[in-house]
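Continuing the batch. This is chain 6 of the set; chains 1 through 5 are on the previous pages. Same settings as before, nothing changed between runs. Recording input and output for traceability.
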Amino acid sequence: QVQLVESGGGSVQAGGSLRLSCAASGRTFSKYTMGWFRQAPGKEREFVARIRWMGDSTYYADSVKGRFTISRDNAKNTASLQMNSLKPEDTAVYYCAATSLLEPTTSTLYDYWGQGTQVTVSS
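Output for chain 6:
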């Protein structure tokens, strides 16, 4: 079992930055691929980014590529999502998730989820 807790959400103006963190506890964090997803009101949950357990491979949704950076610190059992050049369409609840699979981008392939943190970007 892995417990995940997100933090760092908030409100920011367009063009601003936020850094989300995900603290993990439970089973060996370093063996899991970590992902970030988001869900806007009335929309399905969508993939944002993922990072493999060694941190050697990352992948981003086209909508955030070049603006968001995912990272992890296995020694501290944390994963982060640095979000720059934020746009109003980035407004959503952001979730971190963990999976024992290598490179999934589908939410159903993730086993553990945090409770989510709200990000609101105003124009």
